Amino acid sequence: MAAVAGPEEPEPGGSFRRYLARLGALRPQPGAERPDGGRRTELHLLFDQLISESCGPAPAAGPSHQDVCALLVQACQLVHLDQEHLVSKVCQLIHHLLNRFQVMVDEQNLNFLLFYCISALKQCSSWTHVEILQALAALVYNNGPKCQKYLPDLLGKSGLLVQFSDSAQPDVELRRAAVRSMANLCLSVPGQPYLDESYRSVCFQTFLSVLQSSKTSDVDDIAFCMLLQNALKGIQSLLNGGKMKLMQTDQIGSLLAVLKKCMFHGLPGLSIEMPAALYPAPLPQYDKRSPVKREQSEPAAVKQAGNRRKKSKGKQKKGEFGEEGREDLGDAGNESVLGADMLKLRLGDVQNSPCSDPRSHASEVAYVPAGKDHLSSHCTGWKRVSSSESEYSDAEGGMQSKTRSYQANVRQGALACFLSAIKSIEKRVLYGYWSAFVPDAPGIGSPQSVSLMTIALKDPSPKTRACALQVLSAILEGSKQFLSVAEDANDHKRAFTPFSVTIASSIRELHRCLLLALVAESSSQTLTQIVKCLANLVSNAPYSRLKPGLLTRVWNQIKPYICHKDVNVRVSSLTLLGAIVSVQAPLPEVQLLLQQPSSSGLNNSGSVTPHRLNSSEQWRKALPSEGEPPDSPAGCTSSEPCWLLRLCVSIIVLPREDSCSDSDANFPSLSSVYEPCPLRLESLQVLALLVKGYFSMAQSYFIELGEVACRCMEEMDPSIQLHGAKLLEELGTGVLQQYKPDSAVAPDQRVPVSVVVTFWTMMLNGPLPGTLQNSPHATLQTSACDALSSILPEAFSSLQNDQQILCVTLLLGLNHSENPLVKAAAVRALGVYILFSCLRQDVMFVADTANAILNSLHDKSPNVRAKAAWSLGNLTDTLIINKETMGQSFQEEFSDLLLLKMLRSATEASRDRDKVKSNAVRALGNVLHFLQPYHIANPRFREAIEESLQALISAVESEATMKVRWNACYALGNVFKNPALPLGEAPWTTQAYSALSSVVKSCKNFKVRIKSAMALSIPSKRECYGSTQQFCQIWSALVVALQKSEDTEDFLEFKYSASLRTQICQALLHLLGLAKSTDLPVIWETIAANGDAIKAYVLQYLKSGVEENEAGTHGDLCERERVLKRAIEHLSGTEKQLEGKARVRVSVYLEDVLTNHANAAELAEA
What we know:
With 1166 residues, this protein is an all-alpha fold. Helices cover 63% and strands 0% of the residues. It contains 55 helices and 2 strands. The protein has a two-stranded antiparallel sheet with strand order 1-2. Helix 33 packs parallel to helix 36 (778-788). The chain starts with 11 loop residues before the first helix and ends with a helix. This is HEAT repeat-containing protein 6.
């Protein structure tokens, strides 16, 4: 067979099959074996040709995986391990073919090839090891679970990869290849077992030691970068795939130290020395910096360079200026231009900048106006410099550029690894290292410590800057509790700095640095990350405890970016504004910002974003002017509408002015007339947050915002419809909050009921009914249900009759939906409507609603059952209200059969999960309270009543959630209010009192104790408490509870102790007012033993009653004193029936308490 092939076949599969045939022909034939030298030469030629082809341009369709595997196996079978040059070429072939065609090797072939490579590593000379390890890395990639039987050879105590990756290994290429193989072994495969713990530990320590090692002078920069990259990828795989949880402090500290070191690897103008490990500490830690030349000019210079990096062109292709990692190395021209020119521009061109110090601009929030001259200066400042102008030669510049690109990849790898580490470390542990990664205000005369913000401000690579901001965002996410300690509202003049002030200082510095980065940044992708990071910071910072001004600076600086050329920047800017209006709302500072006139902060804010500044004027002018609809309703209080509100409305409803950017194409809208869909959705969310947090400001545009919601729900895009429905719900809820009984809003400041009626009439005549019936989109139906349930009851009663019927009919119909989300929302809405005064008196509506709720109470979805139980509780509340207001007429009209069904269903639900149970027991209490004597006498009811009472007693005694027990105690109190029940006689009475007496003494939750004490004080007659023994047990339990009212393991419960003592004192006085003569000996015995303690608590109870009375209505005498006097009168009469000395003791004791109270009151007045 000829050694050199003829013309190639066009199909790669055919070509490979031909190579396979040639390899087959090279197998030694029995009896006709060709000379070994000739076969070896032919193999060399064949492998060279295959390697050459595998390095060429990618074919349209590669060969099949089976063909590639068969070829590689045949090649290995033909090459003996003593033919080292051929072994090297076979391994190169494995490496190239598997990577080029992304081949997944089947297990049988994988075993053969792995055995071959491992044997080669053991037998061949060291010069072949790099190629063999590269082949090994390609083989084990995503095949870790299939390599189990080879792991002892590779990762055991004297495993090959462990030896070759050892820090003592002098050959860096060999070490890198071994680390890469190890990293590939650590990749996880979904659904497959992961590496054993022992191997994971070996790999982790290996990667850690690689990252801790320093580069020696004889090691090439790029090779060292690739070594670090592979180790970082390995650790990231262990953290992600192995779900590794970092628990030990030394392990966390060592990892974070090397990650911090690698985060700054090769960063121009910065050299840091890191300790071997970081330790958790609240204050900044050892962080030694070695200043380098030009250090002083760097803070202003580096990022000013960044400011103009992309402004020469409106559009820039991805990958320019080394944004991407190794993928960009093919474009050597771009890289070399960057390499030579970046340094030159950082040093020289900054002087020509019209805003050469972004720090001052960031802090003052006053920018150079964005005019034509300013734009042209940006463009000229960033003209590409030709190679002839560069101070480096092409080769030298290209090499430097390549090195910088690899160093940037290391920094990106370290940051990606840090992101994975954050997910593997508990947040409370992570925040111990806060000062190592988050900037703090520098002390007087000391340099700023290096942090993630150093990278975000100084790194020349936009991708690395974005990575650093992603990590910072991840740290800030969920930091609300940690940051809540921050406080700098008062000036601290102490010998030490409190931790709260340190954290507050860090928050301020974060604001300053992020705003500085915002001004300096030019890459749209990185800008998006800066704004997202700011949004995360704003969402978690405790502004109410900080000096005002931080949010004002953020607000003013983000305004120009609403008009940025990139739609992603615009969307994230709106997200940030949404965070501002939702954080700890309402904040006085934000209130003032919202009241600023529309023009404030736009004309003078932002040379940084000149792309579409004019459009800010356009959208302002596009809206109707003052006095015209839609933005100036009657009674509008401000002279000019809220800037943010008008902005959001304009983005949502007005046609777009022009094409914002190419990135808009990523978000195809149903109609290109409007702004991109993500922008409109974010605007709708901001509007909803604005309405929720600052309704007093939004209510001036109540009808207009309703029109916006209508327009959105009329559109074809379900996501726009959904957010329109959510806006509608927030508008409805805002009005509901204003009309709550405890609302602080004065009646004349509320949205008038007539306006609310107009609003809901518009909704019901508009798209809302259609949206509710839009069955393909269950989430939309759910939101529409929630919106319909937010209607003001006073407005509902004023709606036309047909509209009321429409609402009720829609909700009753949706209660039969097959989708659990819709059904849950519908049954909850019915639970709201059942409390409306105009509906609850309609027996037919109550009956229909009851049947619908009971149907949902048996649904298979726990969420539906939980909502149904809540609605059932409301329904039974209505029964009690109707019983008290309508009397016998309603009770007689309401179906006994339905009542029995409710009792049984609620009893069954009380055995469900806690979310259902908590409202089921509430409903049981109400139904048992509602029952009439003829119900109780009815044999059909008797068993159901007994079961329901047992269910309540079990709930009180259970270890269920506190809400269940709280509601169960409340329910028993309701039961005690029904005089038709045989309280004090029936066997269940003893069980109920026993359960309540136990809870009042020992429950960990004080709110449950309060409710149990309240329940024990409800029966109005002595007979209801049963025997003397039972009465005295209740009395003794309350006395013990009073003495233990300050004993708690949970500090959070302590705030309820005063309320608990008040309730117990009320219960004790109530019992004394009912006590019989046979009860008094035990009562006196308790008083004799604990009289002083009881006296002190009762005096405090009387005193607090006087204070409450003074704070409220001024009566003749405190109600609590009247109760005590009645108890004394009752006891005086009762004690006369007793003989001997005990006759007057309890009443005398109480009179002494009353006298002490009166004396104390007189002294206080004097």
